[in-house]
Write a structure and sequence with these properties.
single chain, alpha+beta, eleven-stranded mixed beta sheet, 11 strands, 16% helix, extended
Length: 196
């Protein structure tokens, strides 16, 4: 392993294992690649903090703990959602933290996006969070279609959206065809639903 990551010697690895030293992010990436594991696993395993030192991750801005559920969305076979109109009052809430006070949840109905989104789960959307290439987004088009996709590119007025589930071709649209594009902050399990 020391050779694979370009370390000075095996003692470097031993010091990491014993907790005498901690590798920096660049070294963690090399170790993850050498061990053929995702970087996030290295970070989770490498987190060597005493319990009292662990602090919750804080995001500047307002924390929202109850996200309103505004409706349900049928996951269609063609990759689009057949959305119910948004409710004027929420159907309930999902316990989920968000820095966006306008965050909302939509309950997924159907199985066309399994395994990423399962029947009964809640898609948490943040309309005020800036989307970036590679983000999952909820897109609503001017002709009424609604979908969860991956933003692949947005260049010179052309937007390319890829399917989260396999089997659906990319969608290419002009920006004026898009009514809204909201960042998908996460998928919440049904156990997080609060009917109040």
């Amino acid at each position: 392993l020391a050779l694979a990551i370009g370390a000075a010697g095996q003692s470097t690895i031993g010091n990491y294992e014993r907790g005498k030293n901690e590798p920096d992010l660049a070294t963690l990436r090399k170790i993850a690649a050498a061990c053929n594991v995702p970087l996030i696993k290295m970070i989770e395993v490498g987190a060597n903090f005493a319990e009292e030192e662990r602090m919750p991750y804080e995001i500047p801005g307002q924390q929202v703990d109850l996200i309103p559920v505004i409706g349900k969305a049928q996951l269609g076979d063609d990759g689009f959602w057949e959305s119910e109109p948004p409710a004027s009052t929420p159907f309930g809430h999902v316990r989920f933290s968000s820095r966006d006070a306008s965050a909302y949840a939509v309950q997924a109905v159907g199985t066309s996006m399994v395994p990423r989104i399962r029947h009964g789960e809640y898609v948490i959307c943040e309309p005020n969070t800036r989307v970036r290439i590679g983000d999952e987004v909820r897109v609503r088009t001017t002709d009424g279609r609604s979908m969860i996709k991956i933003l692949r590119s947005a260049n010179k007025g052309v937007v390319v959206l890829s399917s989260i589930a396999n089997g659906h071709p990319d969608i290419v649209m002009q920006k004026p065809e898009i009514e809204s594009m909201h960042y998908v902050a996460g998928i919440a399990k049904p156990t997080l639903f609060d009917p109040s």
